[in-house]
């Protein structure tokens, strides 16, 4: 699994003109599921993300996690993270998981985040989504399982 994390002041996801998820200060998580990924990958990545110390403390140093600051989480599925652009002019998505498996692991990842007690919202799996955000920092990280 792969995730792009963006520390945000606010973010929202709109599908077909309707807001499906939003958060105030916290993290926007773009989540990709790859071939061979399993529940253990989702568990590792969920734990890693909520415990990453990427929020500022009183001294302005990145020393607090989203759990520490009680931030929100907004999750969007993003199979294009597995796009391979090394050959040709069109990305190949051979390493992205089959949509059936990807949906199961995406949903499992979402449930794991919900168990943290933080406010967790999402887009719609496989939908065309419009994502709006105010990146805070900017802080953008890539995490792999």
Describe the structure.
It is globular, with a radius of gyration of 15 Å. It has 145 residues and is an alpha/beta fold. The chain is built from 3 helices and 8 strands, in the order E-E-E-H-E-E-H-E-H-E-E. The model has no long low-confidence stretch (mean pLDDT 97). Strand 1 and strand 2 (18-23) form a beta hairpin. Strands 1, 2, 3, 6, 7 and 8 form a 6-stranded mixed beta sheet that branches. The protein has a two-stranded antiparallel ribbon with strand order 4-5. Helix content is 23%, strand content 39%. The relative contact order is 0.31.
Strand content: 35-45%
Q: How many helix segments?
A: 3
Radius of gyration, taken over Cα atoms and rounded to an integer in Å:
15 Å
Counting DSSP E segments of at least 2 residues, the number of strands comes to 8
How is the biggest beta sheet arranged?
Answer: 6 strands, mixed
Indicate the multimeric state.
single chain
Coarse shape: globular
Low-confidence stretches: none
Mean pLDDT: 97
Distance between the termini: 5 Å
- Structural class computed from helices and strand pairing: alpha/beta
Helical percentage: 10-25%
- The helix/strand series, from N terminus to C terminus, equals EEEHEEHEHEE
Features:
39% strand, 145 residues, alpha/beta
Give the helices and strands, then pairings:
Elements (H helix, E strand, L loop, with lengths): L1 E14 L2 E6 L2 E7 L6 H13 L3 E2 L5 E3 L1 H4 L2 E6 L21 H16 L5 E3 L7 E15 L1
Parallel strand pairs: 3-6, 6-7
Antiparallel strand pairs: 1-2, 1-3, 1-8, 4-5
